[in-house]
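FORM 7B: Structural annotation worksheet

SECTION A. Query
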Amino acid sequence: MPRYLRETAELNLYRNKNTIKILVGLIAILIVVVSVYYNNFIVNILKEREHERVDMFARAIEFMAEQGDNANLTFINEQIVRGNTTIPVILADQSGEPTGAYLNLDIPDNLPEAELLQLLRDEIAQMRTANEPIQVVYRNTANQVEYVEWVFYHNSDLLRQLSYYPFIQLSTILLFGALAYLAFSFSRTAEQNRIWVGLAKETAHQLGTPLSSLMAWLEYLRADERTRQHEALPEMAKDLEKLHMITERFSNIGSVPILEHNSVPEMVQNSVTYLQKRISTKVKITISSVGNDLRAQLNPHLFSWVIENLIKNAVDAMSGIGTIDIRIAPASNNTVHIDITDNGKGISKANIKKVFEPGFTTKKRGWGLGLTLAKRIIEHYHGGRIYVKHSEPSAGTTFRIVLRA
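SECTION B. Predicted structure
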């Protein structure tokens, strides 16, 4: 596959990551639903079997009462009645009061009768909500009903543990998956950071040679009597100084930037002054500041790049005609807010969350990395925030930068 097609495919994959996340989430939900459904299916089968065992237990009691003295009663008592070693049961009279007979309950020995009966009543209340009791009918020799008792029961510990198993299993899987996702995310982020740093430093290295040559030619023109007074030289010097500053920015990416307590209005004004002569004359830029001594911890080179990038984006959004208002004001939590507002074409609601993603652009040309780098500079290097405060299609956009004072 040609390189440009592969890069396009990778970029499309990145842009569609939300769709992929939704698809993965739906598959995960499907797996959870199927797992829980199958487990409940097995639990219901075992629950039905336990109900049948308790019913057989009740029928065995009836049979023993009807038979009286019979040699087969020992087998029934041992194999059916006493053979139940897992299902907790309590025998109660017709009114639901415990008779004192029970099996497989963790009750201390030698408990006073009053306390025992109260404990059995509490257990019966819980058993009644868990399972329907099974009736035991006692008949006389004429097959007439003499009295009725009830068998209350809990599900066995094994069945109850099995009912919790899918949730324990899924919780373990989710915890492991979350830890694995975080580990891979950190690893991927670290790898991306290394790529960013490598590209930036290589770019700075490649720009260094021609920049040095251009600076030498500028000094040559300044030394020549025929050209030293040329009006273009000061602007050429500013552009070369700007290129030198850009080279420094790229070469310093990856290292901890030096933050200084600088005047925010002054930094913004310097960036606007430089750009004003290099953008359309039909674009008007105004700066308003609530207080002249608004300072923040920032790196002048990196911060000016962010301001210039936002202004250039605003100029493109207005097609070179319109106004850009920059408002600087103090805020709570010892921060400074910088709002950059244009009256351009705005951003749709669907794209507001995407504007800072690598590769996202509405221009016919461009890499879609400007706002990504701006976000990285403000949030990673300056510990601040940058976001779309407000945007309305065909009405304009406001970006807000939050810096620590």
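SECTION C. Observations
The chain has a mean pLDDT of 81. Residues 258-404 form a domain with the Heat Shock Protein 90 fold (CATH 3.30.565.10).

SECTION D. Sign-off
Analyst initials: ____
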